[in-house]
Write a structure and sequence with these properties.
The chain has 380 residues and is of the alpha/beta class. The protein folds into 3 domains: 136 residues, Rossmann fold (3-Layer(aba) Sandwich), CATH 3.40.50; 132 residues, Rossmann fold (3-Layer(aba) Sandwich), CATH 3.40.50.10090; 91 residues, Arc Repressor Mutant, subunit A. 42% of the residues lie in helices and 18% in strands. It is built from 16 helices and 16 strands.
Length: 380
């Protein structure tokens, strides 16, 4: 039972956003649906307008014109043509692109190609580089010179397949990924991952996923992060290429059928509420979400310690859980059972409905499950 019409399907859930580019757009989509958003850019993009690497690659292609040019991202293609304009090579580059087989990976890239006054020879329906690769291999690439506009990360599998089939592949590095200028937000997100303080984390590029994992490794907390991801913290990727670094670590990921931010958010809107625990307690439906609880349709924010206690009780619905048994659930653990009593009082206040949690004298606490659901519980 989800009162999503009133609160939004993601109300009570916290979602991490690792994107640098378009982070505001993704954050707004999530917030509009009720989520609390934790933003930590996992990387930043550095344009290469002044970088000799891009200039050298451009001059090489102008001197030795390729047979095929593959445009992989709209922002990268625009950045390339703008940089060439800045060097006085813009017209030569466009003339060169007019005369080659120009492949555009997806509608956005196609739009950038046409905005430059060019027409693509072909664009895959799937927006997948694998489909581009398969088309080229089917055509035959032996002896052909292929220019590939890189989009921040190397594409070894793609490049290797073409080279093994006899192609010469030239990379065009339009911009490169760097760690974020301020690493503190990413560290806070990693800590939230380990503490299960997020319900989901989103990735919109493979380099962001790689940077997130590399930072966890550098801090010595990669095993704890991997333990949380996929099981307790949902991992949502905009597409299969983005998911590769995570899947290589054994992490299960969600991906929308259409590789766009809107479908990514819609997927979370379907999956996160489905994971919520719903219990009939004291005549009042209680839905336990990430940082809040829906109590009879009212959204009640709950502090992390209280939420941890509630989850511990919900794992044994209707059964008594001792104070000592609840201590390990508190953030940071604890040795004083008085801390359980203090946080339990705060939890009851946050829930706002008396009688949801019963104190069982000398024994502990239990959720007051409705009689029809309350099977095999202890005491009262």
């Amino acid at each position: 039972m989800h009162d999503d019409a009133q609160h939004g399907p993601l109300a009570g859930f916290t979602v991490g956003v690792t994107a640098a580019r378009r982070a505001e757009e993704l954050g707004a989509l999530l917030t509009r649906r009720g989520a609390a958003v934790l933003h930590a850019p996992a990387l930043r993009t550095v344009p290469l307008e002044d970088d000799g690497e891009l200039l050298a690659a451009t001059e090489e292609l102008l001197d030795d014109v390729p047979d095929v040019v593959i445009a992989t991202t709209a922002v990268g293609f625009r950045g390339w043509t703008e940089a060439a304009d800045g060097w006085g090579l813009g017209d030569r580059l466009l003339r060169m692109l007019h005369g080659v087989e120009l492949l555009a990976r997806g509608p956005k890239v196609k739009g950038a190609v046409r905005a430059a006054g060019l027409t693509e020879a072909w664009s895959p329906g799937s927006e997948s580089l694998a489909e581009v690769r398969d088309r080229l291999l089917a055509e035959g690439v032996d002896g052909r010179r292929i220019a590939l506009q890189l989009h921040g990360e190397p594409l070894p599998g793609f490049v290797d397949a073409l080279r093994e089939a006899g192609a010469e592949v030239v990379g065009v590095p339009v911009y490169r990924w760097m760690p974020p200028a301020d690493i503190a937000p990413l560290d806070r997100m990693l800590d939230a991952t380990v503490a299960r303080g997020m319900d989901a984390v989103t990735f919109t590029s493979a380099p962001a996923a790689t940077s997130y994992l590399n930072r966890a490794e550098a801090r010595g907390i990669l095993p704890q992060v991997l333990s949380a991801l996929g099981r307790d913290v949902v991992v949502a990727c905009v597409g299969p290429v983005t998911a590769l670094p995570l899947q290589a670590r054994g992490i299960d990921t969600l991906q929308p059928e259409r590789f766009r931010l809107g479908p990514l958010v819609q997927l979370l809107c379907a999956r996160l509420p489905a994971r919520a625990r719903v219990l009939p307690v004291a005549g009042c439906p209680v839905e336990i979400r990430g940082h809040a609880v829906l109590v009879g349709g009212a959204l009640r924010p709950v502090p992390p310690a209280g939420m941890a206690l509630l989850h511990a009780l919900a794992r044994r619905p209707g059964r008594v859980v001792s104070r000592a048994g609840l201590l390990p659930a508190l953030p940071g653990g604890g040795t004083d059972e008085h801390a359980v009593e203090t946080e339990m009082a705060r939890l009851r206040t946050a829930l706002g409905v008396p009688g949801l949690i019963r104190t069982v004298d000398e024994r502990g606490y239990r959720l007051a499950l409705d009689p029809a659901s309350d099977t095999g519980h202890d005491g009262s």
